[in-house]
Amino acid sequence: MSAGNEIVVLVTGVGAIIGLGIVRSLRASGRALRVVGVDRSAGSPGPYMVDAFELKPTDPEDSPEYLAFWQAIICRHGIQLVMPGLEVDMLFLDKNRGWVESLGARLALNSPELIQQTANKWDFGNTLAKIGYPVIPSMRPATWGEAIDKLGAPPLLLKPLHGNGSRGIVKLQDEQDFEYWRNKASGDWMLQRIVGNTDEEYTVGVFGLGGGEFISPLIFRRRLSASGNTQEAEVVSNHLIMERAVERLCKNFCPVGPTNMQFRMEGDTPYLLEINPRFSSSNSLRTAFGYNEATMAIDFYLLKKTPEMPSIRKGIAWRYSEDFVIHASDTV
Questions:
Q1: DSSP assignment string, 22-44
Q2: Could you read off the pLDDT of 271-292 as tens digits, one per residue?
Q3: Closest by CA position to 53, among listed 61, 45, 62
Q4: Is 287 helix (H, G, I), strand (E, B) or coil?
Q5: Residue 104 and residue 19: Cα distance in Å, rounded?
Q6: Are residues 182 and 252 in the same domain?
Q7: Do residues 84 and 152 share a domain?
Q8: What's the structural domain count of the chain?
Q9: What is the domain extent for residue 88?
């Protein structure tokens, strides 16, 4: 249990980049917090960066044993707010909102509608088209020739319909690539024309307030790592992304809480790559420039107040690897 006036926050996926970023953002908040971390593995720096660590069981998420695990840690630690750092945890918590909150914990989750709308890339593209938003030319062809006729000359992108980041995305150069990867791909997929270029790719952190309202976002022009996460980020102002994209998308989809929008500019058109209705891998980078979504989430979800407008600083950030050493006497 917490001591004094500490706020007790549970962060999932603390062995991965998003969960670690949330923990770092919480530590930067300057608030009296007790942070409990959850992950399937204790073999990462994450367990050493939180005040208490719980090993997630391998039981199926719909099993009584898995639900019992969640009930036990929420009650044992007196969890007040849960922040999912993995998409799989977001989906589990979304499915079990009422049950978790009946245990006394609030959830830093987006709206059920937006989580559902963005679950399938093909369906979400159709939704964008219905509201008149420019959609990246896409199709689900039977043959390579059909793809070329509609989407133009290669390279083309093969994308899985589910998932996030760059996982499962493959650049196809010819028919041989097409035949190989469509058979190799697990689950449903689609092809897309490549729009814009890597110099005009943006990731935008928006904190939605519901009803189409939002905290003014932080826009990064970014360069990606091989794993699809932000490797280099520069704070920029882009009125086209703000006026033609973020404001319009928020008005139509009404995000609630941390929401990540990714774009590529082609001329004056901000094409939407995806919306992630959750904390993203660049959340700790945004914190470094004054946009702390974890702090906003405490205000919004737990304290039930509108977060203050952040004072965003300009600059550039890079991600790099460093050593994290634990001696035998320090192990948890």
A1: HHHHHHTT-S-EEEEEEES-S-S
A2: 999 999 999 999 999 999 999 9
A3: 45
A4: helix
A5: 22
A6: no
A7: no
A8: 3
A9: 7-109
Stated pTM of the model = 0.93
Angle ∠(205,139,249) on CA atoms, nearest 5: 25
Residues 100 and 57 in one domain: yes
Task: Supply φ then ψ for residue 288, to 5 degrees.
Answer: -60, -20
Residue 170: give its domain's CATH number. 3.30.1490.20
Peptide bond into 155 cis (omega under 30): yes
Does 189 share its domain with 202?
A: no
The pLDDT tens digits of the residues spanning 209-261 come to 999 999 999 999 998 877 667 789 999 998 889 888 999 999 999 999 999 99
Residues belonging to the chain: 332
Phi-psi group of 168: left, alpha or beta (phi > 0 → left; psi -120 to 50 → alpha; rest → beta):
left
Closest CA to 253 of 130, 161, 79, 151: 130
